[in-house]
Amino acid sequence: IRRKKKTVIDHPRVASYAFCFDIDGVILRGPDTIPEASKALKMLGGENKYNITVPSIFVTNGGGKPESARATDLSKRLGVNITPEQIIQGHTPMKDLVNVYSSVLVVGGVGNVCRNVAESYGFKNVYTPLDILKWNPAVTPYHDLTEEEKVAARAVDFSKISIEAILVFADSRNWAADQQIILELLLSKNGVMGTECTTYDEGPSIYFAHSDFIWATNYKLSRYGMGALQVSIAALYREHTGHELKVNRFGKPQKGTFKFANKVLAHWRQGVLDDHLKKLSIDDPNSHEADILINEQGEEIINQAKLESYNYDSDEDSSEGEFKEPLAVVGKEDKITLELPPASTVYFVGDTPESDIRFANSHDSSWHSILVKTGVYKDGTVPKYTPKYLCENVLEAVKYAIEREH
Ligand code: G3P
Ligand code: MG
């Protein structure tokens, strides 16, 4: 380890901690934006008294649209730039199934949107319940396809197709038809419509993007969600077969989604830091000369965690303490890439104890759960999973975390 003089810029800085937001009940209620959300996101973007940018991502159990559409919508509503890389929806981690199944039935959402999302993930043969109804309207006796649905549906002969997996991507718009089709396939031989298995284990696997029993909309009381559909399908299956249905679950509070979120967050934090480094120039009025630590490989050591990973042997007067936050460093090099350590703390703001608080509390002690009162959780009740902090809304959550860190 040696030391050299360099121009460093203390501002703007990127925080070593990070944020992760639930969407429904924290940022939105149905079509409405929660009023404090915009200010909260702007504070994390740098509008705070510490001039610090706090990397943040969104993990919603919702879905039914591409991540890019969700990002555009949130950007408009909140007045901040949000990109698709910051968004994890309930169905986003289903990307990992692309090479597992060659033909899937995608359930939920409006028209062809979920089919399009699945195809954008790389799924090859993606069918919808509407395709099945077009093939044979008698599958559901009391639903006639609307003109719009006829346009969305594709012509497929389902007596010749073997559906390998049912992926419930988003909330069903037609529980009766979707349940009828899902049950038929689960009880089929190899996922072929019109067939019946004898052993109850010959049908396709079923995956749900999440298991929220209720969720917060713009109605006064919470509404049934995909978890309620899951309960209903499992009950019908049990009644029909006497067996328990095996269900695969994504979304919060599942561990798979947590791992996925950590990967996305790490990537996003790295990008935020790289972006800051690119924008900085030595002409910045906030720049000044400072000591920089250089390791044996000639790399600059610019944050505490990285500093600690080296056998630091100081023979000069600078103390380790001043390297607490990743400092932006400007030098002669065109590009400085940093390998970031994990976020020191991830503040997770949610409204549903059973999915959000459980998610943040269960998998990693560096996640700090915050429960807000703008969604499913009702003030005055005892949450089933205890948050580390309880507050009115998302803005209070952000202020609390920033003050706690500084
Ligand atoms: O359908 C969406 C809902 O169940 C929950 O969304 O953003 O609260 O995880 P979110
Ligand atoms: Mg929520």
From TrEMBL:
**One annotated GO biological process:** glycerophospholipid biosynthetic process
Q: Which GO terms describe its cellular component?
A: mitochondrion
Protein name (database record): Phosphatidyl synthase
The organism of origin for this protein: Scheffersomyces stipitis (strain ATCC 58785 / CBS 6054 / NBRC 10063 / NRRL Y-11545)
| Phylogenetic lineage | Eukaryota, Fungi, Dikarya, Ascomycota, Saccharomycotina
